[in-house]
Structures are given as structure tokens and as C-alpha cells.
Automatic annotation (TrEMBL):
Cited function: Forms part of the ribosomal stalk which helps the ribosome interact with GTP-bound translation factors. Is thus essential for accurate translation.
Domain (Large ribosomal subunit protein bL12 C-terminal): residue spans on this chain: 55-121
Gene3D superfamilies: 3.30.1390.10, Single helix bin
Coiled coil: none
Keyword check for Ribosomal protein: yes
Keyword Ligase: no
Family of this protein: Belongs to the bacterial ribosomal protein bL12 family.
This protein's name: Large ribosomal subunit protein bL12
GO (cellular component) term, any one: cytosolic large ribosomal subunit
Molecular function via GO: mRNA binding; structural constituent of ribosome
Subunit structure, as described in the record: Homodimer. Part of the ribosomal stalk of the 50S ribosomal subunit. Forms a multimeric L10(L12)X complex, where L10 forms an elongated spine to which 2 to 4 L12 dimers bind in a sequential fashion. Binds GTP-bound translation factors.
InterPro entries in alphabetical order: Ribosomal_bL12, Ribosomal_bL12_C, Ribosomal_bL12_C/ClpS-like, Ribosomal_bL12_oligo, Ribosomal_bL12_oligo_N_sf
Length: 121
């Protein structure tokens, strides 16, 4: 028996909601699976009280010293002038992702030194 996905999709488009519901139940029973959304994501979010081990450094406002902010972003990220300017001009921008708390605080201090407003996420 050849598998014709186009024919299956066409059949699904024409099916009623109750037919599709019956199909889902039959597939769940036949293959011993569940169509329910995984709950692990919600459980992971509930553990918000634990200490974070990585932070994202986000520039939320560039301040009035844009040239110095662009230089700081270039130094931090290693990006070229155009890319660094794009991050500073299009705030809020994530400057660096997944850094340690110490590094995040250092980067925050550098950007705040040139007038930027930084959020650690």
C-alpha cells in the first residue's frame, strides 16, 4: 500500500470537527500516544525561584552618548561598526546571551558607563 500524503491531507480538509476528533482518539488508541500538549514546559517555568546560571544582557535604552555606546557594543560583541550601530539604534537589543552572572554584571557596568540602560534576563 503506497502512502499518499496529498490524498490524506485532502481528506482531512473535507472532514468535520467531530470526524477529526474521532480520528485523533483512534490514533491515540492505536499507537498508544497522547495528543495533549506536554506539561514539562509548565513545570520548568514553575521553578523560577532557583538561581539562574546564565543571563542575557539586553540594552533597553542607548542613552545620549550613542557613539560611545556603539564602541562599547563593538568591544563586547566583536561585531563590526554597522552591526553594532544596528543593535544600539534598534533597542531593546540583546547584546550577549548565556553569560555568567559576573560577566553579565561587567557588561552591564560597561554599557551603563556610557549612558545605556541595561536589563539582565
Amino acid at each position: 500500500m503506497a502512502f499518499d500524503k496529498d490524498a490524506i491531507i485532502a481528506s482531512l480538509k473535507e472532514a468535520s470537527i467531530s470526524d477529526l476528533n474521532d480520528l485523533v482518539k483512534a490514533i491515540e488508541e492505536e499507537f498508544d500516544v497522547s495528543a495533549a500538549a506536554p506539561v514539562a514546559v509548565a513545570a520548568a517555568g514553575a521553578d523560577g525561584g532557583a538561581a539562574k546560571d546564565s543571563y542575557d544582557v539586553e540594552l533597553t535604552e542607548s542613552g545620549d552618548q550613542k557613539v560611545k555606546a556603539i564602541k562599547a557594543v563593538r568591544e563586547i560583541t566583536g561585531l563590526g561598526l554597522k552591526d553594532a550601530k544596528g543593535l544600539v539604534d534598534n533597542v531593546p537589543s540583546v547584546i550577549k546571551e548565556g553569560v555568567s552572572e559576573d560577566e553579565a554584571n561587567e557588561l552591564k557596568a560597561k554599557l551603563e558607563e556610557v549612558g545605556g540602560v541595561v536589563t539582565l534576563k
